[in-house]
Amino acid sequence: MKGHFTKSKNQTEILHVLERVQRTELTLKSAAHILGFSHRQLKRIYKRFKTEGQQALVHRACGKASNRAFDSQTRQLILDRYQQRYPDFGPTLAAEKLAEEGLAVDHETLRGWLIHEGLWQKQRKRSAHRSWRERRAHFGELVQMDGSHHHWFEERGAACCLMNMVDDATGVTLALLAEDETTVAAMTLLWKWIDTFGIPAALYTDRKNLYVPSEKSAKRASLEGVEQLTQFGRACQKLGIRIIEAHSPQAKGRVERSNGVYQDRFVKELRLAGVDSIAAANELLYGVFLAHLNERFAVEAREASDFHRSAQGLDLAAIFCLEEERAMTSDWVVRFENSYYRLKPQSSYAPAVGKVFVRKQLDGELRFNYRGQDLDYKRLAERPARSEQKAEVSKTKGKYVPAPDHPWRKNWR
Question: Which among 59, 66, 146, 382 is most buried, taking Cβ atoms within 10 Å?
């Protein structure tokens, strides 16, 4: 490979070789071979050396501005705009935002300017070494999920939580801002992921009780011979999604690093847009931010096959809900959240099974599922008298007959 004396060769070495040529100890051809230059190039250097001496070894462009350099006026304009609008932005993000304003500058060029002006200082972050884990091969094979608590609105609002999902194979992310890391927030985000990409094969989460039961309750359930699931875990089980527990934040490093990107970029976007509410933040998130983020940082999976499954035919509203089992009286009355509800009977007899599943959907709507069927219901204004209930059923030997003033009596005969 041909050398370049201005970059790859020490001037002292070149001077020593040229002096040997001058003393006729070496030919130009041999000297070019030693230095790794072409014969023509060294011949030109040697000609200058004979007339200018050691100064001939200094490149003609040394100390001069590049032909592609910014003029001082443009450079100052960019630096002024940076200090005015992006004073705490890193060089990479600041260069992107400046380009949107028509002030295009390479991020490394901007970094050099900022360091020279004392406006930016690189802080090296050293951490304990951890063995590197290779990405999964397929999109949807494993999706990491986590909540990031942060002052997303800075001083403009209270701290809240960003629910974040990141595909392990590609780094594709989907997020949702919520008041806290709750079951409803986690279900809402997973539902959005399914609507967008499909049902993933597995989720990688931490060991919060939101995702997996505590060790104590899981052990107690195991002794009783039953499976203990959280509300979120039950929904995942119905969808065939396996939950894998991470035993440290570093184990789910993909989503942790993604949280850091959001805390840097999304906070600044919210500031520039003047957003101070969760609803407006989510509009910005799903407007352009997520698309730009995935375009900027997502990579191709090693394998082309997509491991997501279709959700076609599934009632996701019945899956993503808070489900609890409640006792039902002989006259089809259920108590839930300190309110009483009368279900429309399946027959004129008292219920054969005294249990009903109450499902509170994410939009707040209630469903009362009795033996696999959702029943119509009405909310009662007050608690029904128990003595009257027992008397009605007793007189009919187990057959339930509504009271004469019951609003549904005429429809049940």
Answer: 146
